[in-house]
Structure formats: structure tokens, C-alpha cells
Amino acid sequence: MSLKNQEVTYTPSGTRAERKSLRKATTAESLPQKRKLGQRIDEALERRGARERLVGDWGSREPQSLWGPHRLRPAPHRASTMTFAAAYPFLTESGLGHEGTYIGTDVFGSGAFSYDPWILYDKGIISGPSIVVIGTVGTGKSMCGKSLVARSITLGRKAAVASDPKGEWVAVANAVGGKVISVGPGRTARVNPLDAGPRPSSLSDSQWQAVVRQRRRQLIVALVSLMRQGTPLHPVEHTALDMALMETTAENSTPTLPMVLDHLLSPSAETLALVGKDGGAAVSHSLRRTVSGDLEGMFDAPSTVAFDADAPMMVMDTSALIGASEQALSLAAACSATWLEAAVTNPDGGKRLVVYDEGWRMLADPYMLAKMSEQWRLARTYGIANLLIMHKVADLNEIGDSTSGHRQKALGLLTEADSRIIYRQKHDAMRLTKEALGLTEAECEHVENLPKGVGLWKVGNRSFIVANRVTTDELEVFGTDDRMHL
Asked: Per-residue pLDDT tens for 23-36?
């Protein structure tokens, strides 16, 4: 054998006859072996066919066999997320975590639901600690607010109720070891709304004096505006008021409203030179309402009570004013809230929930709305979480129409809250609720059909249906419909 131009050439051995004879002999010897091999193959194929006919496509049912289809080709399945959440628990909402105050049960996830505005702010889930609770009468909104406040106190938080017009928070304060200040006709407590309040350690003497002076001036201007149905003060009246407040403070470090009124009615020579004889006359007559008539004996003397910053809860009980005129209620709310604000806005006072019950009345008052807007913006600075409780967004229609600046400002206060808790609403109120609080169609459908004690919680960009759970002892304290039961 040799290679030449990559071609193989060879010379066969023997003659052609010899090679043919050799092939015949080899074939004769291997034929029986080939027949036996073919027979064994046929037998194996026959056994395999019988076995396949016995077990089918799903294999053998013997214990050691993994019985099942050889090829999995499931039919396509289509379902809603609601069905998947029920069928596959790992697809349900994980909740906000275990940290914070226990509220109740996540209806869809079946787990415990806890909430704390400061913890959620630290985690970046919400951008502000303010809370709005909305629900019609008898749906459980008050129970929810009281549960959140009382249980937060057990975790080291504090609380303050700016005005309790129905006296519902008095029992809560007594239950948690708090203090109650009751003002109104026949009550012995006196509250001076011009008190300076606790001084923050970070402010210098001049800074603190400027803060106190501005706070007092804003209150007196608000009281006069309320008496004049919102009519603004004239420039000369502002001057007369400033002079009266300055002269009063110079004589007494803790002025009272009667003292300011005396300087308005009997102006000094310097004031007369600036505003004339009648410059402060109209202001003085408007301010006189706060020291006489239906508010006499409430805010016209030095305080006989003090705000206890160490108490777990402080409540300003104004239930004695039930039946008073709207104007008197607004004046009382302004004085109470200003006095309380001077105490709770101290950054050294710790984390505190500030409750505004019957929020629609607060929002209807221009002064209170301005103070609430300020506390909404500065809540993080003060370390407070505002809790506004009201019946429905449609209550804002009483403030003005859609073009009213006051109404738009009040509506903006609701939309700025990053935690919104909505209990059952009637169908005719849902359109405004949806627009104001940014609800989806599915959320609106749920809100209209929520049972008592169950609410929609919109926390940041997440939504939960939560059933508020209360103990028997809590129900006795938080309940507001005892007289309705037989």
C-alpha cells in the first residue's frame, strides 16, 4: 500500500477465484450467529411492546417507578390577580411589617397589621407623618383613631387632643393616665391663650421673644377677624393692635386678653399720635367678645392649669360648649388650639400625636386652617403626627364652592396627608372622595361596601383593607354608642 497524490492504491492478494471462495466460507460460518442475534432482538422488541401496552404513556405503577406523564404540556390558564392571591398565598401583600402599633387584621393577607408614622417615615414608605381618618357616622372611624392613639401611648408615644367638642376623648385620657383640661361655662379651669408655652432649648432669648410675640399677634388678629366674619383689619387697626400688645407685654411678661383690651380702649399718648382717637375702637369692640358674654370666664384670666409635657396624653375638653353659637365655638377652638400649640410644637417634647376631632369644624375656621397647615408643613421639625378625623370630604362644600380659595386650601390639607384611612362612604359622596384622596375604581367599590370596623388604609403608594380589632376593655372605653344599646 502506498500514498500518491492523496489517493489510496492497493494490490489484492490471491486470485479472484480464491477471494470468492473465502467470502462464501465466512458467510456460511456467521449465518447461524446472525440468526440468533436477530431472534434475540425480535424477542426484546416484543417484550417492550407488551410492557408499553401494559403501563401506557404514564409509565409503570410499580412502587419504585415515578408514575406520571412522560411529557407535560399543561393547557394555558388565565385568571385574575384576585384568584391567584387566593390560590397562591405567596402572592398576597406582605404588609408594613411588625413594627409599630397593632391595629388589626389585613383582610386580604390575613396577617397582623401594624402602623407607626415615625417608623414608616424612617423607612421611606411615607414622606410625612400626618394622618386623615374619614368615615360616616357609625362606621368605626372614632374607634380606629382611639385605638391608634391609646396603643401608641403604650409604646412610648404621647398624644394631645386640641379640642374635644363631644367629650369622647376624656375616657381615653383617664384610661392611659393622661390629663384633661375642661373649659366652658361652669368650669373652674382658666386658660390664657397668650401664654408663652415651653421654650425650645435651641432658641436664643431674642429668637424666643420674636416667636412668642408673633404667636400672640396672630391669635388676636384671628379672634378679631372671626368676630368680623372674616373682614380683614385696616392698616391703622393693625398698628393699634401692635401698640396695645407691645405696651401690655412691657407691663406684664404674661399678658392676658383683658389687658390688651384695656390698652385698646384707653390708648397711650404715643398710640393716639399714630392711630388717632378712634384707630383701635373697632378692634377693641370685636375683641371684647372673648372676655364677656358666652366666653366669659374661660380665656380672660391667667391660666389656672398647665400643660404637662410629661403626661402621656392631654385633652382639651370643650364639650361644655355644646349648644353655643358657631362663632363662640370657633373662638373657643382658636384659643384652645393656640394654647395647646405653644406646648406641643416644642421640638424637645418628644414624638406626639396631635388629634383634631370633628375636623370639618376646624377646616371651616380660617385661623385654624392656617395653624393646621403650618403644623402639617412643620410636623417633621416638631416631631408630631397630626391626626384629622372627619365624616366625609363633601363637608368641605359648606366652606365654599370649587372656586373658593379657603375650600381649596382645606382640600389641599387632606391630599397632603400620606396616610389616609377611609371607612364606609355613601355612594353620593364617593366622587369627591375619589378625587380628593386619589382612590382607584376598585378602592371606591370596596369603600362603599365596607362593614363596620373595616377601613381602607392608603399608606404612601400602598393600599390595605384592615379590620380594626379591639378588646372588651377597650370597647368599653372607646365606644360612643352605649346609649343606643338595650
From this structure: 766 666 666 776 77
